Amino acid sequence: MKKRILPARGKLGVLIVGINGAVATTFIAGLFAITKGYGKPIGSLTQMGTIRLGKRSDMDIPKIKDFVPLADINDIVIGGWDIFDQNLYDAACESKVLEQKDIDPVKQELSSLHPMPAVFDNYYVKKLNGTYIKNGRTKMELAELLRADIRDFKTKHNIDRMVMIWCGSTEIYMGRNESHNTIDNFEKALQENDVNITPSMIYAYAALMESIPFANGAPNLTVDIPALTELAIQKNVPIAGKDFKTGQTLVKTVIAPMLKARMLGLQGWFSTNILGNRDGEVLDDPYSFKTKEESKLSVLEHILQPELYPELYKNFYHKVRINYYPPRGDGKEGWDNIDIFGWLGYPMQIKIDFLCRDSILAAPIVLDLVLFLDLAQRVGMKGIQEWLSFYFKSPMHAAEVYPEHDLFIQLTKLKNNLRHMMGEELITHLGIEYYEE
Fold first, then answer.
1. pLDDT band for position 58 (50/70/90)?
2. Please, which contacts does 146-151 make with residues 24 or more away whose CB atoms are closer than 8 Å?
3. What DSSP string describes 372-395?
């Protein structure tokens, strides 16, 4: 049965934390270019992807954007916060992700966008020194200032619906503790300026209190704590995270399932990266790197399930390195050496050198998450959206299950969720089998 889906009427406000960063400016400049007919949304499942309906022989394969009632990208209105006071044209030029020939045609649109002052504390991102920040006596007061920004933005631009997405930097490693367990504990911690409440959590709290879907593109805990998950359910708001799945980890979620599918063993997986943008600089701090490392290391354990296949995957060695190298800019290089073994234990190797562009890979993820989270809210979905795990390195999940990291299982789950929304039969890939009597 088809779900009741509210129509995507009016304007969709997209509030971005870290709006002057490389990921955000690449997304926004690209969005303007696409809506003006200067470019194509390559990498976006919502804009270019298809979905099969019924049997293969039916050949009913519409585009996803023609199948589910997504918001029109022409109805998106951009706003957000940053720790540097700079219009988005200057920020996009400074990021050096896109070439000038791709930025200049949308100069007017980018130049008209300025960030709001951010909630920021150098304690949580030690490599950055924000100069355009809010002041408040307590973290609760800062949350109220963000909520006022949200309401003002909605009124000023006559916004019908909103989504907030974290494109900010990786914060220092933070484990869950008592202040994260309940809404009451969390709000008390906000009032008391508890060190365990990070800036990203303040943004997430403000979004949820204003009934706005929230996605976390960094490996920070942020909304992945019981208090904010509970708040999302109370407020009927969908949430998703963590950490955009772009370069090296994207490759891991393809290669590791191949090894397990063929029952090939793994002795070790060494990964190193060089990256020169603001993200690379932030991750040069060991406390922020620890947060990213936890996100990247968890992938193989969950995919390979060594507890089920100890002969193949018990005690494999996994090492991840990220090195800040300014000359490389946004053009990250991810290098993997994979030591595997096969029949009778004979050793083999796989070597991968992925010269990718982090922000180019992340930009379409931002667009898809915005559109899918807006759709989820109009369907009436709330809390953790596991069907959006496809987009994250460290996907949020229900407490009683392990996270699914296999890219192709994630994609199947995402598309089946869309089929379910629209009352279509789920695809199980069971074909017609013929048996002799």
1. very high
2. 146/81, 146/119, 146/202, 146/203, 146/206, 147/206, 147/209, 147/210, 149/81, 149/116, 150/15, 150/206, 150/207, 150/210, 150/212, 151/210
3. HHHHHHHHT--EE-GGGGGGBSS-
Instruction: State the average pLDDT over residues 270-289.
Output: 79
Amino acid at site 415: K
Give residue limits of the domains in the chain.
11-244+359-421, 248-355
Distances (CA, A) of 50 to 69, 186, 207, 366, 430: 14, 42, 31, 19, 20
Tell me how far apart the alpha carbons of residues 162 and 15 are, in angstroms, rounded to a whole number: 7
Place of tokens 């708040």: 231
Residues with Cβ within 8 Å of residue 52, at least 6 apart in sequence: 60, 61, 415, 427
Cα–Cα distance for residue pair 58/98, rounded to 1 Å? 41
Q: What is the pLDDT of residues 250-259, one digit of tens each?
A: 999 999 999 9
Lowest mean pLDDT segment, chosen from 41-55, 155-169, 190-204, 395-409: 395-409
| Separation between Cα atoms, residue 423 and residue 47, nearest integer Å | 21
Question: Dihedral through CA 428, CA 432, CA 433, CA 437, nearest 10?
Answer: 130
SS3 content of the chain, % helix, strand, coil (to 5): 45, 20, 40
Cα–Cα distance for residue pair 70/7, rounded to 1 Å: 9
Which residues contact residue 101 at a Cβ distance below 8 angstroms, ignoring those fewer than 6 apart? none
Residue among 157, 160, 154, 2 nearest 71 (CA): 160
Q: 378, 6 in Cβ contact below 8 A? A: yes
Query: What is the CATH class of 248-355?
Result: alpha beta
Q: How far apart are CA 415 and CA 335, in angstroms?
A: 31
DSSP state at residue 431: -
Write the CATH number of the domain with boundaries 11-244+359-421.
3.40.50.720
DSSP secondary structure, 310-373, as one string: HHHHTT-EEEEEEEE-GGGTT--EEEEEEEEE-GGG-EEEEEEEEE--HHHHHHHHHHHHHHHH
Contact status, residue 53 vs residue 62, Cβ threshold 8 Å: yes
Q: Which two tokens stand for residue 323?
A: 């090195």
- Which residues share a beta bridge with 268? 317, 339
R_g over Cα of the chain: 22
